[in-house]
């Protein structure tokens, strides 16, 4: 990948479309516009132009917007061609670009990578941009926009500035201990802020579980004995036929999942094989997979069609809540007494489905009144923040200003790796590979 290349790609959605946007970035952008569209348009102003091949053949008429660097997304000279979104039109323009000297098709995420390398975005903002593009729920959008707009980066940069100030004060005391204008107690003063900073970072790390639920979804497992109505409930909640439903026990042999949106959150619903002892090889494998999924559940829906069917002997984390769901009440409502189940429902009539959704919603995070979602959303963030917290703890526990200053440097480097300020070259290929071509 060469920053001296001029790159181009389709940046809009799948074709055909009402409008297609082709993005160009690099030092040859202005010359490319001149060859395809004639005179260079006024910067950052949409101009209606005829787009032609270098032999003068008309390809399309569309809007041309020129963004001279560094005031552009990538920090380089950029251009957007807004064309009619037919496949033939777009392919013809892309072929015309390919024929020009010094241009090549962009790699996945290359526009965003150039924005990072030119200081227009840091890594947290880049990752937020990727999440914003793929966001499917309201909470995923809110989390992504917080990162993409720089809100989370500002928090980390504030912490980094406090660390830099602490190091400067300690090193000043080390280097100029004999000077009258450098008081010997300066390091004592800054340690209170270092201790407070560690507390803030640890509290921030503690919110990673919330971010995981927002990004990856609340994992809800439907479990119970064979023929308890698990697959019927999955189909009812998904509002379409996903799992095969029969009266034969053991029909479900594998784990089936579906993604739902509930109260703005992503919810991953898993239907599992009925738990029982069996000698049938395929069903035993399904039960093994069911137990594996149950072990990673955030919430368990335990189903039974009879009051004595809620016996649970499977391994599950102590903090995983269980909602007991009585099923098929259109057949056996009279057999249930108050308190024997949390929810009574029938997938056939729809009774109780709303009550179950209300119960599930109670287990989603409560973000009422929260205006900021500056929380660590990726394992990479959490790992670096933990390294910073450990270094701060060592600095607080160590004696000797020189050793303490070194631990503060380690903490600062760990924070810098979150935003990409230091030592992240090996991460770049992984991060930008998540992007589509043209972004």
Characterise the protein shown here.
The protein folds into 3 domains: 6-120, Gyrase A, domain 2 (2-Layer Sandwich); 124-207 and 375-420, tRNA modification GTPase MnmE domain 2 (Four Helix Bundle (Hemerythrin (Met), subunit A), Up-down Bundle), CATH 1.20.120.430; 214-361, P-loop containing nucleotide triphosphate hydrolases (Rossmann fold, 3-Layer(aba) Sandwich), CATH 3.40.50.300. 43% of the residues lie in helices and 17% in strands. It has 15 helices and 12 strands. The chain has helices spanning 29-37, 87-98, 110-117, 123-134, 138-148, 151-175, 186-205, 208-216, 230-238, 281-294, 329-332, 353-361, 379-397, 401-419, 425-432; strands spanning 6-10, 17-25, 47-52, 58-67, 78-85, 103-105, 218-224, 256-262, 265-271, 299-304, 322-326, 343-344. A 6-stranded mixed beta sheet has the order 3-4-5-2-1-6. Strands 8-9-7-10-11-12 form a 6-stranded mixed beta sheet, sandwiched between helices. Strand 8 and strand 9 form a beta hairpin. Helix 4 (123-134) packs antiparallel against helix 5 and helix 6 packs antiparallel against helix 14. The chain starts with 5 loop residues before the first strand and ends in a 7-residue tail after the last helix.
Which keywords apply here?
flat; Four Helix Bundle (Hemerythrin (Met), subunit A); Gyrase A, domain 2; 6-stranded mixed sheet; 439 residues; 15 helices; Rossmann fold
